[in-house]
Amino acid sequence: METILDIAGLTKVYPGGLKALDGVDLQIRRGEIFALLGPNGAGKTTLIGAVCGLVRVTGGTITAFGQDLAHNWRDARRRIGLVPQELGFDMFETVERGVRYSRGLFGLPPDAARIEVVLRSLSLWDKRHEQIRALSGGMKRRVLIAKALAHEPELLFLDEPTAGVDVELRRDMWRQIDRLRDQGVTVILTTHYIEEAQEMADRVGVIDKGRLLLVDEKDALMAKLGRTEARFRLAQPLAAVPDSLCAFPLHLEDDGLTLAYRGGDGAGKGKAEIAAIAQALPHQGIAYTALDQKESSLEDIFVDLVEREEAAA
Ligand SMILES: Nc1ncnc2c1ncn2[C@@H]1O[C@H](COP(=O)(O)OP(=O)(O)O)[C@@H](O)[C@H]1O
Ligand SMILES: [Mg+2]
Question: What per-residue string of b and e applies to 119-139 under the rule 16 or more CB within 10 Å gives b?
Answer without folding.
Answer: bebbebeebbeeebeebeebb
